[in-house]
Specification:
The chain is an alpha/beta fold. It has one domain: 3-Layer(aba) Sandwich (Alkaline Phosphatase, subunit A). Helix content is about 35%, strand content about 10%. The protein has a 7-stranded mixed beta sheet with strand order 3-4-1-5-6-2-7, with helices on both faces. Helix 10 runs antiparallel to helix 11.
């Protein structure tokens, strides 16, 4: 059935109201969206997806009405922090007992005490000019992975694509250039057409054990070609998500051959070790982040950075909590808090091969496919939260931290406490992606032509 006039007008008026309320970081003049003054000032990105849709406003923009944050605000917040720190971020059982004391000795602290080192953008949206949020898991996740529904390439493919000249130069000089990696779902590794050759490797075990083994040098060239052609024929018969998974596998297998020596190195065997690497041992990283899937991936990400890897994508948790959120979310947030606390401590402790600390060169960002809503109540009837077209669903209050972030402790934008109406910047996910591409030094003039980088993140 077609779009009714009433529904069309409602959407149009909603978009017009938002336009009047706050600036969008979208536009049409291609030449306005070239490099910013901070182009290439960061070397690494850790991009963490809070899987399943996350109650962003409740956690990272929490000084709002109780129907939007039923858990309350945190105490003991660091002076100078502008954004609303949720009580959910107080959970710090990882700092209890003898092991907790050892983590404190590494520099780990409860998140409220280090909140002045995080910057929050309260109103990140898929489509700022749309009449409502995209609260669909499938299309919302596509927008998060690629920038739009049916996008030709995942964000991490775009990172490798934007660095293609750097990789080509390194290869010509006999150097090994490690690409961006996906340590989780392969959606960020999609790539069609000109992007296909730049898909990142995908690793889902939290370890590179076994990736250093290759039989390529034991097989004659004709057999390798035959195997490759058979793989490609089988792949070309597939469609949609199935083909994307196979593409990711084939690219990962190529990476196994290219980087076999590095994958076998002690630096990437992160399970145990007492030898300091960049000033921190494997055992210390294990103490900080633990042995969960996300913890292992964080540890591996930091070691991949040692070899020049520009970015790592990680999935964490599961927050599609239509029921039981009231009791379950505080406990589930403890791992998020541990990741934040551990990364702030370790990045500031680790010495970077290029000089300074890893903190000086690294950005950490958290995102998801959409926010979550309780429909104007503290929780839904099952004591959980849902997703539809309202402000709670569309606002992803994204936290960022690391040395290249311009205004630590700031809140870049604002929502009205009573109804979450935007009172400041509204930023598209594509603008966030373009900002990250820019600060990582990825060429991006031919990407997301209608969106400009959100310069406030990195330009002071």
């Amino acid at each position: 059935m077609g779009l009714s006039r009433r529904r069309f007008l409602t959407g149009a008026l909603g978009a017009a109201a938002m336009t009047a309320a706050a600036p969008f970081f979208i536009g049409r003049d291609r030449h306005a969206f070239a490099r910013t003054p901070v182009f290439g000032q960061a070397r690494h990105l850790i991009y963490i997806r809070l899987r399943g849709g996350f109650r962003f406003t409740t956690a990272f923009n929490s000084d709002v009405a109780t129907q939007y944050n039923p858990f309350g605000v945190a105490g003991g917040v660091a002076p100078g922090c502008e954004w609303g720190v949720s009580k959910l971020l107080e959970g710090s059982s990882f700092l209890d007992g003898d092991e907790g004391a050892a983590r404190r000795a590494l520099g780990m602290r409860p998140v409220p005490e280090i909140a002045d080192q995080l910057t929050v953008v309260p109103c990140v949206d898929h489509e700022p000019s749309a009449g409502g949020a995209d609260g669909n898991h499938g299309s919302g996740l596509e927008r998060y992975w690629t920038g739009s529904v049916g996008g030709p390439a995942g964000f991490f493919t775009l990172i490798n694509y934007g660095l293609r000249e750097r990789f080509t130069t390194a290869t010509a000089e006999g150097q090994i250039a490690i690409p961006a990696f996906c340590l989780g779902d392969s959606g960020m590794a999609r790539g069609l057409g000109v992007f296909a050759a730049h898909r990142p490797p995908v690793v889902q075990s939290g370890s590179l054990d076994g990736f250093g083994l290759s039989i390529e040098d034991r097989v004659p060239p004709w057999a390798r070609n035959l195997s490759r052609m058979q793989d490609e024929r089988q792949r070309d018969r597939l469609r949609g998500d199935s083909r994307a998974v196979v593409d990711a596998y084939l690219e990962t297998r190529k990476a196994t051959v290219r980087f076999a020596e590095i994958f076998q190195s002690e630096t990437l065997q992160t399970s145990r070790g007492t030898t300091p690497i960049d000033g921190v041992t494997h055992d210390e990283l294990r103490l900080a982040f633990g042995d969960s899937e996300a913890g292992r991936n964080i540890r591996l990400a930091l070691r991949l950075f040692h070899f020049g890897c520009p970015a790592v994508y990680i999935d964490q948790g599961g927050y599609d909590m239509h029921s039981g959120e009231e009791n379950e979310l505080p406990g589930r947030m403890v791992e998020v808090n541990r990741i934040i606390s551990g990364l702030v401590a370790m990045l500031q402790r680790m010495q970077h091969p290029a000089g300074g600390t890893y903190w000086d060169h690294t950005i950490v960002a958290f995102g998801s496919e959409f926010g979550r809503t309780s429909g104007g109540n503290r929780f839904n009837s099952a004591r959980g939260s849902d997703h539809n077209g309202d402000y709670e669903t569309r606002w992803m209050s994204m936290p960022f931290f690391g040395g290249p972030v311009a205004l630590p402790g700031a809140r870049l934008g604002e929502t009205r406490s009573s109804d979450l109406r935007p009172m400041g910047d509204i930023v598209s996910y594509r603008a966030v992606m373009k900002s990250l591409l820019d600060v990582l030094g990825c060429e991006h003039e031919d990407l997301f032509l209608a969106d400009r980088p959100y310069e406030r993140l990195f330009v002071g």
